[in-house]
User: Fold this.
Amino acid sequence: MSNRTIVITGASDGIGAAAARALHNLGNRVVVVGRSPEKTAAVARGLDCDYLVADFARLDDVRSLAGTLLERYPRIDVLVNNAGGIMGSREETVDGHEKTLQVNHLAPFLLTNLLLSA
Ligand SMILES: NC(=O)c1ccc[n+]([C@@H]2O[C@H](COP(=O)([O-])OP(=O)(O)OC[C@H]3O[C@@H](n4cnc5c(N)ncnc54)[C@H](OP(=O)(O)O)[C@@H]3O)[C@@H](O)[C@H]2O)c1
Assistant:
């Protein structure tokens, strides 16, 4: 797979960062998305690619992320919904959802649908 525009969430660390490197090395334009500005910028610097920051525990961040992606990239070939994890003890987000459910499911569902419906 090459010459595609590929957006990868959770690309500041772990599997997402490894996938970003691998897909970049295959000749794709990778856009790395993370929660931490510092960690995400460091991955993007290493790949000389764009990055965006959003905390999936805030659905307004996800809406802004989708808006910026749609503005900047007329065509997105692949969205890799990788961000997530198990958040430990029960916590509620500002949106009123259990945090693990929101970060792993609701936020990527919203992001995917905002990008698809444009
Ligand atoms: N590793 C496994 O064995 C395994 C097994 C099953 C499923 N998975 C899933 O595979 C994905 C990647 O796993 P991994 O092992 O690479 O995990 P990881 O190293 O902990 O990386 C998770 C990524 O998700 C981001 N993230 C976490 N909470 C977020 C939030 N509230 N908003 C936005 N981004 C957030 C992290 O950002 P920060 O850098 O800011 O923390 C990081 O970039 C996860 O969805 C995980 O649940 C992994």
Notes: Helices lie at 14-25, 37-47, 59-72, 99-116.
